[in-house]
Amino acid sequence: PLVRHAACAVAAASAVYATTLALSGGSHDVAEDITDFVHSAAAVRASSQSALSFERTRSKHAIALRPADDAAARRFLCASTAYFGADACFVCVQLSRGVRPRLWAGRLAHHAVQFAANGPALAGSSGRAVRPYLMLAYMAEVSTLFLRLRSLLRRAAPERAGLIRATSRLLLASFAVTRLLNFPLCTALIWARRDVLRPAILKLHLAFAAAGITLNAGWFVALLRSASREAGSGRRRVAPASEP
User: Fold this and answer.
1) Residue 215: pLDDT over 70
2) Rounded CA separation 75/91 (Å)
3) What is the pTM for the complete model shown?
4) In terms of Cα–Cα distance, which of 151, 144, 112, 189 is closest to 42?
């Protein structure tokens, strides 16, 4: 069943990519933005559903998923891992052809961290202790929705500077909450499950959490710089009209 879910995820992502590529006149950037937007929307939906079904365990700070929701989380994690794997293959193929896709290094680093995180969660009963905090970590995809939306707005409506700046602010706010704050919370949940996680998985996921926090901090600095440049550009455009 997991193989089927993985194959369906790759097929669906490929269909979205091919369709948007054709409709956008061959723009790979637009196709990437829309395909990733669809994945992020699915991730936020799955993460929200999991968060609503969390149950406290005997351990004071630990959480668990009800059996039906745990099975759904496992299916989603399988599909998402397959999606990231397909994107990693796409980036590698493009690099072998001498083409550097947008943010290729960051994408490969992200996918490597995600593979390390999701691998143990794909197991059956032994992955049940892992899936709750991984599903909570997927709430980070909220910020990706705004990231991709801003990218699409910059191409489709570059004259709507105010709307683009507003989207950038929403991106920064969502990034701060769902990544900068959420990842330390997920790290605490990993530590709370240390008595039930195998030592190798505990070390792997603590390393994954540290890598995620580091990547997020670096990306947030880059987003702040981008927002600052946008604000400066907006002020320069407005200045001549405000002068006597």
Assistant:
1) yes
2) 25
3) 0.87
4) 144
